[in-house]
Specification:
Helix content is 32%, strand content 25%. The chain has helices at 2-7, 59-66, 89-95, 116-127, 132-145, 162-174, 192-209, 220-226, 244-249, 254-261, 268-273, and strands at 8-23, 28-44, 48-52, 74-79, 82-83, 99-102, 180-184, 212-217, 229-234, 237-243, 313-317, 320-323.
């Protein structure tokens, strides 16, 4: 058991994030938005876990909760044998440099009034006791590490392209030499030609620095390239978790099958014969999810019990977990 504890850098157990809904003049609580509703997974040291699903399924909320940017409603987030969900603010401040985040929109997450040098140096000022000269040297070293000219330290974010701004965000995330980084759709706002460059940079940095990634995305083809294992999320729950090879070659959950059927294949002959799975209806509201399986209202193979009995999370095959009665 001790070997497993050392191997897993992060273990999330039954994590829930519920946002209260208030109505009326006296702001009476009338319900909850169940953004994340009982999510469990583990990430090993040096691994990249991909977290995929359509918009609004709770991917980004899960990423923020893992870093305690949101306080969990219930559940635990164990980072190196410490439950960070239970830490005080002062204890969390000591742990936070080890866990960082790369945000989706590089334009929105960089202060337009600060120079690039100031942006990258900010965590160093906050969390280290480096001298001014050492800080400047560290900032230049970080910019060089992400493929930017160190002489750009006095420029402002608006002077850079989208891809370059994302590299500045990556340099800032690396400033405190973290062990774990949540990449929240880091390529979604970038041109396709730049996306591959940023993903290759992340892979190079992972090899050089021994980083562990939670890579959140809705781009299944890119996740296949960067991730070791993939978790598929729908309406606040993980419905399937498997290694990349197993998930892409033999998906077990109907939702995973539908997602993968929408990914285009480069071979026209294969593309012509492929069967698309078209889902009917809309995603239910997270404030009023279905009683049984969360996917039952759109599932093409749903049976009577799917609407009333929540499916058990089980290991269907070695290293392939699924929550489906019919898998």
């Amino acid at each position: 058991m001790s070997d497993i504890v050392e191997k897993d850098l992060l273990t999330v157990s039954d994590l829930k994030i519920h946002f209260p809904i208030y109505k009326g003049l006296f702001r009476k609580k009338v319900g909850d938005v169940k953004a994340v509703d009982g999510v469990s997974f583990a990430i090993q040291r040096g691994e990249t876990l991909g977290l995929v699903g359509e918009s609004g399924c709770g991917k980004s909320t899960t990423g923020r909760a893992v870093l305690r940017l949101y306080d969990p409603t219930a559940g635990s987030v164990v980072f190196e044998n410490r439950d960070i969900a239970a830490l005080s603010d002062s204890e969390m401040r000591v742990t936070r440099p080890r866990m960082q985040m790369i945000f989706q929109d590089p334009q929105a997450c960089l202060n337009p009034r600060m120079t690039v040098g100031s942006i990258v140096a900010e965590p160093l000022i906050e969390h280290t006791k480096l001298s001014s000269e050492d800080r400047k040297a560290k900032v230049r070293e970080l910019l060089d590490a992400v493929g930017l000219n160190p002489d750009f330290v006095n420029r402002y974010p608006h002077e850079f392209s989208g891809g370059q701004r994302q590299r500045i965000g990556i340099a800032r995330a690396l400033a405190l030499d973290p062990d774990f980084i949540v990449c929240d759709e880091p390529i979604a706002a970038l041109d396709v030609s730049i996306q591959a460059q940023v993903v290759n940079l992340l892979e190079d940095l992972q090899r050089e620095r021994g980083l562990t990634f939670l890579f959140i995305s809705h781009d299944l083809s890119m996740v296949r390239h960067i991730a070791d294992r993939v978790a598929v999320m729908y309406l606040g729950k993980i419905v399937e978790l498997a290694s990349v090879s197993k998930l892409y070659s033999n998906p077990q959950h109907p939702y995973t099958q539908a997602l993968l059927s929408a990914v285009p294949v480069a071979d026209p002959k294969i593309e012509e014969k492929r069967q698309r799975v078209i889902l009917k209806g809309d995603v239910p509201s997270p404030s009023n999810p279905p009683e049984g399986c969360v996917f039952c209202t759109r599932c093409p193979i749903a049976e009577k019990k799917c609407f009333t009995v929540p499916p058990e999370w089980r290991e269907l095959k070695p290293d392939q977990f699924v929550a489906c009665h019919l898998a």
